[in-house]
Amino acid sequence: MSTSIELPVLTPKDFASDQEVRWCPRCGDYSILAQVKKILPTLNIPKEEFVFISGIGCSSRFPYYMNTYGMHSIHGRAPAIATGLKVARPDLQVWVITGDGDSLSIGGNHFMHMIRRNVNLKVILFNNQIYGLTKGQYSPTSPQGKRTKSTPYGSVDAPLTPLSVAIGARATFAARSVDVDIKHLCYVLERAANHKGTALVEVYQDCNVFNSGAFDFASKKDQKVENCIYLEHGKPLIFGKDRDKGIRLNHFSQPEVVELGKGGVSEDDLLFHDEKQENPTLAFLLSQMRYPDSPEPMGVFRAIDRPTYDDEVNEQVKDVTEKYGPGNLEDLFSTGDTWTVE
Amino acid sequence: MSAVDTQSNGNGNFRTTEQVDAVVIRFCGDSGDGMQLVGTQFTNVSAVFGNDVSTLPDFPAEIRAPAGTLNGVSGFQLCFSSTDIFTPGDEVDTLVAMNPAALKTNLADLKRGGTLIVNKDAFDKSGLSKAGYATNPLEDDNDSLAGYRVHKVDMTRLTRDSVADLGLSLKEADRCKNFFALGLVYWLYDRDAKATQDWIKSKFAKRPELVQANLSALKAGADLGYSTQAFTVHYKVPPAKLPPGKYRKMTGNEAVAMGLVAAAHVSGKELFYAGYPITPASDILHELSKLKNFGVRTAQVEDEIAAITATVGASFGGAFAVTASSGPGIALKSEGIGLAVITELPLVIVNVQRGGPSTGLPTKTEQADLMMSFFGRNGECPMPIIAAATPGDAFDVSREALRLAVEFMTPVFLLSDGYIANGAEPWKIPDLKNIKPIDFKHIKEANGQDGQYLPYLRNDRLVRPWALPGTKGLEHRVGGLEKSDGTGNVSYDPDNHQHMIETRAKKIAGIANHIPEQPLEGPDSGDLLVISWGGTYGSVRTAVQRAQKDGHKVTLAHIRYLNPFPKNLEEVIKRFDKVLVPELNTGQLRFLLRAMFLCDAKGLNKMKGKPFLVSEVYDAILENLKK
């Protein structure tokens, strides 16, 4: 015989707050918000257990639009706030909402340390390659040469690849999707939600006001099949409208595009995706494949198991308490030499 | 002072034991000479014996500056006494100098006629030159040491002799000479070395030859005192008459850690602490990290900003959250503290002040962060500030800081300083019954109409509720943008912003109704009111007492609550003709008092990285009375 507690069935509407959404019309953020609201009810977790923590930027308004617990904090610090919260309250589902400027520029330090600690947080990085809220300056992910308000003659900065940074810090989960690719985004977000550890999802998000069309190569139907490789665990890297192109490692262990069937190349010669490889080298190599130099991988780059920081901190508290017994103030006060004055 | 005992040492030489009330000793040597260690040992032994003790460790910021140089000198001063004392002493009675550099940098503080014990072996050509001595001050024709009782001891040689048959390397043997010096001083002041012997046995348990060597060196030092004609007098300092009870030695940093853990524990809460290593606050992190069986979660995070913001996150989650740092770190935390102010979340920020600006003097004390605590954030950003007066007081003040944070839903500054943090005093172990739990409530039910939760609905103290994530029906968002009072929704409404600024200020000002009135030490009115705060308490109090004994109408108001001030402070100030504010800064409290109470306060200001001498404050009192 089994007993079960009936959980109320939640819908996306249950996760919507009463606040008017104030992003620009046709901003990519709307789609991301909608997909998050769509997948949360499928997780069978009570709404009050979710906390959304954000930094500063357009995307960081996100928590106001969710009818969950949330904090719209200060620039770059969401990972640190979320880490403190998760250590103090490991029972909560803590999501971090951040952008490319927020997480990679002012908050680069916290971003890296959250990942290497593997705090059990879900992180959505809205990457639009621009500073939107401050009205259009280049960001740490803007391509070199980019003309913006602060780079009228073109940016001379070399950009960061967020997933390379994350995988370099041995992220246990790193994935990429695109704002308008609804089905794929939902799949990736759901994978992230079910991952234990820091789950980073980079979402290419179109800022139609200051950086319109930056990700057309990955969002336009006709372009994406030629420019993107959709990663599947255990499957070879194949792409193209006719699925006739693939990725093979050459003699220098570098990825190269080959045509299937040409020169005797078969599927078996291709690179097979293994998201569970403990060694991050392959995932890093995939993260370095960037459009337009190469077709760009989408999906889950890496998903491995490693103990989480919040678990470890709390386990240690438990272990020490078991070993030495629960703290006793009288004993604590009397540690070291004591003496009595009559 | 009286001779109480004369005895023969068996060689036909007679020794005198003199009883004295208080002695100030300073051990000084190279950073690698173990001076902090022997100073601490002497302090422990004296405390266990029942003396009142007060200490002043003084060490360089460099871990190991080049050996033998002036920059590498490390010192540890302590006063032990048969009466209540509040400072480690103005003048040194006995100076132990392990090398020429130590002698050169410390001799000026030795009082005329005081005892000087030097390691003669270190005064070789190289040692003298590193210290910048052209001639050897120990040589007979050099009169720089005239007026002191000088004992030139072959410490290096005698230490080597004492460990000769233990098979140590020369380097290992030489490292025992601090215990040789300690043994000699133990003999000189009639101390029982047992606690130190026990410490050596446990510290070096894994290396029996080092246990033996350090014990031998300790004994050799004492034997020298006993057998040499040079030491004709040794001294006895009887136990102090402290209030009855069980005591231990306590440093300020230990007291902060224990005070916070105790306050959380009796309140049924667990402590969350995030910190980043910084002198002189790191020991708070070290102490708390040991106390995991009290449920303390400590995180050494990537930077100061992560430390403050992690505590904001933990506080949002319902923890009693704390971070500690020193000036440069507090500067980095400013924005995060502002977030805690606007989200009205409780947390404690400990600032163990050191010399500034910038990196300043990391290991030296100063009180120059008061203005930063008041005003060092963007916008109108008021928060409570309280300051510890002594190492032991830091225990009580820590609980008080947590209480104010939680009862008023606000971040609170707890000010300590390098002197309090590293200084030690006997601490009477409190009765647990006297550590009162902190009242906290987590709201469980909606507080608005139609089941709505209003995160900024305030009580009669203007305090908002603390709803924990995970509580059904109370989902809400907080953040750094201005909030509409009541609903907590983002608001750009001009009237709301003015209302919120005034409300946050009123909430903090209202704390004055929930803290004690300003206590006075001395008559209620008179010629001069001395106002002090923080770690200068010991020197200022001693100076005021001395002036009172001399018949002057002087009163001390030592302020613990700096923001808001006790509500009677203004009225107290008006009852005195003159006001003197001694501070280890250029006059920050004085500036505030003048601005807020229109009083003509004068200052005594010292910025040398060192605490006040009693005499400095005493002289300033007399001078201000004359004016």
TrEMBL record, chain A:
Enzyme class, broadest EC rank: oxidoreductase
Source domain of life: Bacteria
GO molecular function, one term: oxidoreductase activity, acting on the aldehyde or oxo group of donors, iron-sulfur protein as acceptor
GO biological process: cellular respiration; small molecule metabolic process
EC annotation from Swiss-Prot or TrEMBL: 1.2.-.-
Lineage of the species this protein comes from: Bacteria, Pseudomonadati, Planctomycetota, Planctomycetia, Planctomycetales
PANTHER family: 2-OXOGLUTARATE OXIDOREDUCTASE SUBUNIT KORB, 2-OXOGLUTARATE OXIDOREDUCTASE SUBUNIT KORB-RELATED
Keyword Oxidoreductase tagged: yes
UniProt keywords, alphabetically: Oxidoreductase
Domain Thiamine pyrophosphate enzyme TPP-binding: 56-203
Keyword set includes Ion transport: no
One Pfam family recorded for the sequence: TPP_enzyme_C
Family annotation (InterPro entries): 2-oxoacid:Fd_oxidoreductase, THDP-binding, TPP_enzyme_TPP-bd
Protein name, per record: 2-oxoglutarate oxidoreductase subunit KorB
UniProtKB/TrEMBL annotation, chain B:
Keywords: Oxidoreductase
Origin superkingdom: Bacteria
Pfam families with a match to the protein in the record: PFOR_II (PF17147), POR (PF01558), POR_N (PF01855)
Annotated Pyruvate/ketoisovalerate oxidoreductase catalytic domain residues: 32-222
Domain spans labelled Pyruvate:ferredoxin oxidoreductase core: 527-589
SUPFAM superfamilies named among the record's database cross-references: Pyruvate-ferredoxin oxidoreductase, PFOR, domain III, Thiamin diphosphate-binding fold (THDP-binding), TK C-terminal domain-like
EC number: 1.2.-.-
Matches recorded under InterPro entries: 2-oxoacid/accept_OxRdtase_asu, PFOR_II, Pyruvate:ferred/Flavod_OxRd, Pyrv/ketoisovalerate_OxRed_cat, Pyrv_Fd/Flavodoxin_OxRdtase_N, Pyrv_flavodox_OxRed_cen, THDP-binding, Transketo_C/PFOR_II
Keyword match Protease: no
Entry's Gene Ontology molecular function annotations: oxidoreductase activity, acting on the aldehyde or oxo group of donors
UniProt key word Oxidoreductase: yes
Enzyme type, top EC level: oxidoreductase
Biological process according to GO: response to oxidative stress
Domain Pyruvate flavodoxin/ferredoxin oxidoreductase pyrimidine binding: 272-485
PANTHER family tied to this protein: 2-OXOGLUTARATE OXIDOREDUCTASE SUBUNIT KORA, PYRUVATE-FLAVODOXIN OXIDOREDUCTASE-RELATED
Listed name of the protein: 2-oxoglutarate oxidoreductase subunit KorA
Species, as recorded: Rubinisphaera italica
UniProt lineage: Bacteria, Pseudomonadati, Planctomycetota, Planctomycetia, Planctomycetales
